[in-house]
Amino acid sequence: MTEQKRKLEKLAGVKGMNDVLPQDAGLWDFFESTVKSMLRAYGYQNIRTPIVEHTQLFTRGIGEVTDIVEKEMYSFVDSLNGEHLTLRPESTAAVVRSSIEHNLLYDGPKRLWYIGPMFRHERPQRGRYRQFHQVGVEALGFAGPDTDAEIILMCQRLWDDLGLTGIRLEINSLGLAEERAAHRVELIAYLEKHVDALDEDAKRRLYTNPLRVLDTKNPALQEIAQNAPKLIDFLGDASRAHFEGLQRLLKANNIPFKINPRLVRGLDYYNLTVFEWVTDKLGAQGTVAAGGRYDPLIEQLGGKPTAACGWAMGVERILELLKEESLVPQEEGCDVYVVHQGERAAEQAFIIAERLRDTGLDVVLHCSADGASASFKSQMKRADASGAAFAVILGEDEVAGGTVGVKPLREAAAGGEKSEQQTVPVENLTEFLINAMVATAEDGDD
Ligand code: ATP
Ligand code: MG
Predict the structure, then answer these.
(1) Pocket of ligand 1 (CB under 6 A)
(2) Are residues 391 and 247 in the same domain?
(3) Which of 71, 296, 298, 408 has the fewest CB neighbours in a 10 Å radius?
(4) How far is the C-alpha of 180 from the C-alpha of 367, rounded, in Å?
(5) Which residue among 298, 324, 350 closes a domain?
(6) CA of 134 to the centre of ligand 2 (A)
(7) pLDDT tens track for 189-211
């Protein structure tokens, strides 16, 4: 008894993991369809990998001494078979794993894209969540700076297609392994001189991954990072030529950029080109997309040595920007809302709604919350609120006469001339609605 009487508690979602509610569905659709058409324009193919991978993929692929692997992964042991698994924190390693496993590059390089949720145990704040979404591209098997330039231009095209402005491009070159090794020696010597001023993260990384100290977010370390030896000064001829090739293409295509010598990226697998797209409009979480070249990764994960580059974009941050700039598209209602009263009318309305859907119209059939028939007045309120272009109305008289009432709703809602209800024979309904919609669309064009 007490069990039954106990008040049922409301359950909340997991902290840092958001629901996308219906009011935002249109915005997500707008973003996803714009991104997909941009990706088609560059010949990219979609790949979908599982949300769960072996933990080892990320420790090997992303690097042990990174924020993600050190402290952000949702890892667990499968209680049924003891496997060590992780919710993917990013997708590059998984796409590479898949392309090796399925020998995707057997007939040449591939341009791939993905979209989906990623998981990182971070402190939730604006623009930083524990489940978030990335759309990303991976160009596998292309070594030249032309591909670096192409994937950067794809982002610019997307900003233009979305109507976003003020997203700045920063680029840098991380050179090759031996160039980083030479820089590392000087960087460690420099950091050792400032060891007392370093924070815990920086001290821990001093010998394991000193380059990471340069992308510290700690304000107290900015000056030390600013004055550290710059990797860019250690680049050899080939690295320099690659970097210059990229810059030439960006300039030739009128893409402004800034060279940021401290841009090193949080992941271990990058070499040569790295870049970020940054905005000032989102506060501290201003990086909306980031990427670069990761030539060593495919071999590191067991494939043949293959050049590769890509980027990943934070979908929530872009959507936030779209809202910030009032670029949220107007939500379109359905074409027709069917209202009805009486038992025979209800049955007829159901059939008419199906016939209208057969012709490709979007139709909402009025259904009451309690199963009883609501007044025409309250049904018409629902019809107005639905954003439908037309109400189709059936009462006993219409059923008896083989007709329906049709009332345009949008003109009235927009404060235009009052639209009269018309009686239309059921067999002419589709034609009538389609003609009326074409006429409204043409009016709209004037
Ligand atoms: P940050 O420095 O902000 O932590 P990162 O270097 O960890 O970013 P990447 O791994 O390069 O980020 O991911 C690419 C993009 O994905 C970021 O530029 C950002 O737009 C988005 N992103 C990364 N982490 C989150 C998160 N926790 N919540 C929302 N978006 C994120
Ligand atoms: Mg991060």
Answers:
(1) 90, 120, 122, 127-129, 132, 134, 266, 285, 287-290, 312, 314, 316-317
(2) no
(3) 71
(4) 67
(5) 324
(6) 13
(7) 999 999 999 999 899 889 988 98
